[in-house]
Amino acid sequence: MTYKVCAFYQFAALPDYRELREPLRAFCAGLSLKGSVLLAAEGINGTIAGAPEAIDAFAHELAQAGLFGGRLNNLELKFSTAEAMPFGRLKVRLKKEIVSLGDAAADPTRQVGTYVEAAEWNALISAPDTLVLDTRNAFEVAMGTFEGAVDPAIKSFGQFKDFAAEKLDPAKHRKIAMFCTGGIRCEKASAHLLARGFAEVYHLKGGILKYLEEVPKAQSRWRGECFVFDERVALGHGLRERALRQQELDAARDE
């Protein structure tokens, strides 16, 4: 059986997120889905896997009226496949943030960077006045990144604001193009930079996964694999599972 994998997120006001946990868990369990879902007052974030028809039913439930009353009508959804179930169990957890940065001023529902479609990304990052910034953790960057991208050398996304304070200057870095796995970290990172006075902040819509899905390998400026937080470990162009050397697998899991 080939499993369908759905990575999703949306920043949206969910003041009742605690009450949503059990109905959402029960709905996912009823579809035999496995994976991880985070709920917070600021929105939802997760990756789940299951039978194709079950994933389709799940996506429909989130995006339509259903459990969330139509509040998730702008979900960022990305689909891929896995030859084996990439998750051991189902987890629906409550969090303070759906992606942890620790900056109350970084509110993607109020301001966020300019979205750039995958088809337009190469032109943006090729411009000589663009600082290309990888917002992911160091071990993810080591597995693959875009040509010429700056590695912030952080162990967790929460350290991004320290990197920005020490290494980025609104007067010097006037045009920043950032990227991450699926787009969610860039929502927070771009909101953080805008709040600090950076004028032009762009981010790859749908993240690396959308780029690998839509941009042909022959035209790609991506080098290496894209780490994903499940048992597949990494994906390549076309969102195909990639066979990695055992030491790479071990290193990724150690992190």
Automatic annotation (TrEMBL):
What Pfam families does its record include?
Answer: Rhodanese, UPF0176_N
Report keywords, A-Z: Oxidoreductase, Transferase, tRNA processing
The EC number(s) this enzyme carries: 1.14.-.-
All copies of domain Rhodanese, residue ranges: 126-220
Instruction: State the reactions this protein catalyses.
Output: uridine(34) in tRNA + AH2 + O2 = 5-hydroxyuridine(34) in tRNA + A + H2O
Q: Per its UniProt record, what CDD domains does this chain match?
A: RHOD_YceA
**In which family does this protein belong, per the annotation?**
Belongs to the TrhO family.
PANTHER family hit by this protein: RHODANESE-LIKE DOMAIN-CONTAINING PROTEIN 7-RELATED (PTHR43268:SF3), THIOSULFATE SULFURTRANSFERASE/RHODANESE-LIKE DOMAIN-CONTAINING PROTEIN 2 (PTHR43268)
HAMAP family hit by this protein: TrhO
Protein's recorded name: tRNA uridine(34) hydroxylase
> Which organism encodes this protein?
Bradyrhizobium commune
